[in-house]
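Final report, closing paragraph on structural work. Over the funding period we assembled a curated collection of sequence-structure pairs, and we close with a single example.
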Amino acid sequence: MKAICFAAFLAVLSTTTTNAFVANNRLSTAATKAATRSSLSSLHMSAALIVQNKGGGHGELGFQLAKNLSNNPKITSITILQDDACDDTKEPFKSYASDIPNVLVIKANLSDESMTAESLNSLLGSSFEYVWDNASKKPEGSGKAICDAAKSYWNTKVFTYVSSAGMYQPTADTTFPMAETTPIKETAGQALFDKYAVDIGLPLVSFRPQYIYGPKANKYDYIDWYFDRIVRDLPLLIPGDGSQKVSLTNSEDVASILASVLNNEEAAIEQRYFNCGTDDLVGYDEVGLLCADAAGVDRSKVKFEHIDADAYGKGKFPFRPSDFYVAPDMVKEKLGWVGSVHKLKDDLSSYYDGYKARGGLDRKVDVMKDYEIVVASKL
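Its predicted structure, as stored:
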C-alpha cells in the first residue's frame, strides 16, 4: 500500500477526539467526520471494505484478507467494518493494530436490525470499489444495508460474499468433490443473501468455504477433537471406514482465494459461485495419524473405532458422517488461483504448540457421548 495513503490517514486521524468508532484514534465530532470523508475521498482510488464478524469459524478471515490485500497493488486503501461484539483481547482482533497498522478499523453493531444503507454510508464516509462481506448471514439488518449501500452509494465494482459450503445438499447422484452446481438448501440464509444481492443488481461473487483453521483462529473444534483424544490415549470414534475426505484449509489460503477475484474481475462475476478450500484433501483417519505425528505419539497407539453413525449417531465428531467436501478446481480455472501454500501435515506442529498453550493437555474433556456409543456398539 502506498506510503502516502498511510501518511494522509495519520494526518486526518491526528485531529480526532473521543467516543466514536475505532480507527486507531477515535473519531467523534461531525466536523471531524466531514474532514475524514473529504481527505479520504481522493485516496480511495481502489478502496476495499472488509466486513468482519465477531468471531467463530470465519473470525480470522478479515484479518488475513487485509494482510493479503495490503500487498496487492490494485488496492490503495483498506477499511475493516468490525462487528463491535468481538473480543479485543483475543485473536485476531488484538493483533489489528500491530499486524495491519495501515488498515482503518471502524466498529459497528452488525446485529442492529435497524441499520440502513444511509446510516452505514454516513458511518463509513467513503465509497468502496471492492467489498468483501465476511459477516452477513442473511439479507436483513446490516446484511441488507451493506448490499444496498454498495448498490446505491458506492458503485462497487466487485461485491465478494463469504458464504458457506454447508448449504450444499448432495444427492445419491452427487460425485465428489462437490461442484458449484450441487443442489443447495434454497432457504439457507446465505442462499437468500446471494439471491438478494443478484436481484438488486450487485456484481456478486460468492465463495463457499468449509472447515478453516489458522494461526490466529478463534475456533478450534475440528482439530482439537483429535488431539483431545490422542493425547489422553482415548479412542477416535469415526463414522464409516474413515476414508472420507475433508477440506481443512488454512485461513491464509482462504484469504488468497477471496482475493483472487482481483485476478479476473469479469470472469469472477460471470461465474459468480466458487467453492473455497484447499487442494490438499485428507481422510478422516489420516487427520488422526497426522495429529499423532505432531503430538509425538506413535501411530500404532492411535485407537480408531469406526462406528455406524446411522445406528448410534456421530457423537461429537466434528465432520459429516459421509463424504462432504469441495475442491478449488473452478477458482483455479477461472481466476488463476495458484493453489494452497499450506498443507495440514506441515501446520499441525505449530497448531499443537497452540493447543498446549491454550491448556489443551490439562482441560477436562467431555467424552461421555463417546463412551455411550462405544458401549452401545458392543452390545
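The longest strand covers residues 77-83. The CA atoms of residues 290 and 345 lie 6 Å apart. We thank the funder for supporting this effort.
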